[in-house]
Amino acid sequence: MADRITLRVTRYRPESDTEPTAQEYDIPLRKEWVVLDGLNHIKDHLDGTLSYRWSCRMGVCGSCGMIVNGEPKLTCATFLKEYAPGPIRIEPLSNFPIVRDLVVDIGDFMRKLPRVKPWLIRSEQERPAKEEHLQLPAEREEYEQFSMCINCMLCYSACPVYALDQDFLGPAAIALAQRYNLDSRDQGSAERMDVLSSADGIWACTFVGECSAVCPKDVDPAGAIQRYKFTAAMDALKTLLLPRGAR
Fold first, then answer.
1. Do the bridges between strand 71-74 and strand 65-68 make them parallel or antiparallel, or are there none, so unpaired?
2. Is the pLDDT of residue 127 over 80?
3. pTM of the prediction?
4. Same domain, yes or no, for 70 and 158?
């Protein structure tokens, strides 16, 4: 294995650039280094002006998502050696406005997230609980997969629907809504129904499945969306066929 590799990094400085360009950096190729290590080497030793996001370096915070050779990846979990001999293209996540270099604006997602109410909802008439709302292991397993989302935005970057229509709620928001819809302690599924079942909710998804393919935590947003489509369809059918008291 060679001891050097080239990173071809997107640069965009809004105060001077009209569009993004690519700049190449020659860095050490070490078997234990991930792409984020390569970017940190550039920042520390070659070009202190490079801008990008990172925090935990452990695949937990989700902040270091970027496009690596055309695929949305967590750069803290993507090894340089997998792309030897290079060069490796490092670009900002697709489908988001670029703020600077590899930093994108995820404000659209942050504005949409509260719409699906991703928190436990209990009846306002319910007295304060004197005991815990305990769950069986099987009840927790119902939603556990969807609770693993780290908001890394890789699914939005890979989603062809979001690329064409940014009114779409998007994979992560819908998966997080399902996490609470499936929680035995939650009573808010009806409140989420109007938002999730709207034209820019689950029905906008064409089930390409790229969101699940790129998810680093195996959340399976596409599965969450299809599952909710079935629930919404059954609810609509019951409304159509059953008397009000029997729904």
1. antiparallel
2. no
3. 0.91
4. no
Residue 60 and residue 193: Cα distance in Å, rounded?
30
Residue 65 sits in a domain whose CATH number is 3.10.20.30
Segment 144-200, tens digit of pLDDT: 999 999 999 999 999 999 999 999 999 999 999 999 999 999 999 999 998 999 999
- What 3-state DSSP class applies to 66? strand
What one-character-per-residue DSSP string does 102-133 give?
Answer: TEE--HHHHHHGGGG--S----TTSPPPSS--
- End residue of a domain, out of 86, 104, 122: 104
Nearest to 184 by CA among 224, 141, 125, 247: 141
Q: Is the Cβ–Cβ distance between 74 and 216 less than 8 Å?
A: yes
Q: What is the CA radius of gyration of the chain?
A: 21
Partnered with residue 103 across adjacent β-strands are: 100
| Residue 172: both structure tokens together | 């992560």
